[in-house]
């Protein structure tokens, strides 16, 4: 299996190389040269299997000979052993044809753990073999950062630098990132928003001298391995509702487009997904784009679902690549236009291709709060604000096909918003009960690239 860049001008890589590389050297994102499909019988056989067994079947065709079957099975088992629910991703019924996929039973209480725990295992196995050392830099609007820290803390061959927007993550999210005592963890609070952090990360990848010197690796969803690991729960949940014998749809609270893109890959692999519904908060660039055909950046508006406060939605580039017939040059052109003007217009053909798979909805702050309140009253489920955005949009898209909404974080990560909506302050699990007493360690940074690079060089000794 070879991996190619969405901009068509970077070297082809193996799975292992793509995983350790992050962003392609032409600024694009890696994708498999072709997406393998699973047969009807293979999908049907997943009924009754464990999450780990399904994970092996789904991911194996993408990893080539990076790991033996036995090694890969062990790494998968280790990745999910620490989850707080036997099913890993349990499905709950909210209404006759509406289901909630709880993705917050991992160590940091967000869906990011599904991929990050596995990537932590894959990196360790790969680096252990080669003896290499890497510097991971991640940009976060709150959840990727803590998941990455949890997955890589304490490792001797990895330094982890996490850039988060100062004052724009919840207090629980911030403390999850700043209270890790391990010397290889560096939490950096950046003046700006998530897009500032992600922009700095991409600038560092595009500075080849720096990139090679620190051996830069990325664990945001620009890393294909992140997306791949997230494909699994689309299969596990759909099969438990009767796939491949019947269709399902998914509504996904969306920011950087990584999670919903994993659903798109599941669909390409043969999972009968009717629609993938993009649910956005007031930062609704994707909803506007699907509606009007114009991808127009705006300033980021802080919301009660802060992890989705994103304008430049990185993985949308992967969907565009397919929508433009896998023409890297066409994608490079629109991305250049985005960089220079802050906007681009999707061609009619590409827009039509996107609309065949995706539809979208946007909810306001008041609607998000109302969704938390109503879901509690009607279905006895306490949602985080991101999951509430998903649920509110899903309700507008319910039909004959069962709808699965992804619950992407635990409500206790966002206690203020949940309490304001319901009067209930959700408690952290006992293992995190002392989070507010732990000492914080954080470095405040401006959005200055040179200063950030100097800090990374100094701390890694590269
Ligand atoms: C809780 C939560 N929900 C939804 C999202 C959006 O997911 P994605 O960025 O993959 O679109 C994020 C951030 O990624 C998140 O942390
Ligand atoms: N919502 C994310 C933003 C980064 O997304 P990623 O999936 O590309 O890592 C976060 O919580 O950090």
Describe the structure.
Its cofactor is pyridoxal 5'-phosphate. The modification N6-(pyridoxal phosphate)lysine is found at residue 112. Belongs to the threonine synthase family. The protein is of the alpha/beta class. It has a domain at 91-106 and 224-422: Rossmann fold, CATH 3.40.50.1100. It contains 19 helices and 15 strands. The strands form 4 sheets. Strands 3-4-14-9-10-13 form a 6-stranded mixed sheet, with helices on both faces. Helix 5 (112-130) runs parallel beside helix 6 (143-152) and helix 10 (224-240) packs across helix 11 (258-268). Pyridoxal-5'-phosphate (PLP) is lined by residues 110, 142-143, 221, 253-259, 307-308, 386, 408-409.
**CATH-defined fold name of the domain at 91-106 and 224-422:** Rossmann fold
Helix content: 40-55%
Mean pLDDT: 97
Low-confidence parts, pLDDT < 50 over ≥5 residues?
none
CATH class of the domain at 91-106 and 224-422: Alpha Beta
Strand count, sense and barrel status of the largest sheet are: 6 strands, mixed
Number of strands: 15
EC number: 4.2.3.1
Protein name: Threonine synthase
Pathway: Amino-acid biosynthesis; L-threonine biosynthesis; L-threonine from L-aspartate: step 5/5
Keywords: Amino-acid biosynthesis, Lyase, Pyridoxal phosphate, Threonine biosynthesis
What are the key terms here?
Rossmann fold, six-stranded mixed sheet, five-stranded parallel sheet, 15 strands, globular, binds pyridoxal-5'-phosphate, binds ligand LJ64HWYM, Thr_synth_N, TrpB-like_PALP, pyridoxal phosphate binding, pyridoxal phosphate
